[in-house]
Amino acid sequence: MGDENVQIEWGSEKLVKAQQTIDENKWDIEAWGVLIREAQGRWINDVRPFFERLVATFPTTGRYWKIYIEQEVTFISY
């Protein structure tokens, strides 16, 4: 999945701009951070492709894996 563009309805201009930024430059940590914070408040089924792209882009960044796993576990209990 790594470099594929992920199409998620972010719902605000700021978030759409952050998505466009990482589509153009996958190494933009600031844009990733904006989207990570938003994705943490959404259902995992809606944002799983985003998290898959995140960990594919930064496979050795344990913090991102932790965020992804916590998101998965949080919504399993619902």
UniProtKB/TrEMBL annotation:
GO annotation, biological process: mRNA 3'-end processing
UniProt-listed InterPro entries: Rna14-like, Suf, TPR-like_helical_dom_sf
MF GO annotations: mRNA binding
Domain (Suppressor of forked): residue spans on this chain: 14-74
Chief location: nucleus
One GO CC term, this protein: nucleus
Keywords: Nucleus, Repeat
Localization, UniProt: Nucleus
Annotated PANTHER family: CLEAVAGE STIMULATION FACTOR SUBUNIT 3, RNA CLEAVAGE STIMULATION FACTOR
Name under which the protein is recorded: Suppressor of forked domain-containing protein
Provenance organism: Nezara viridula (Southern green stink bug)
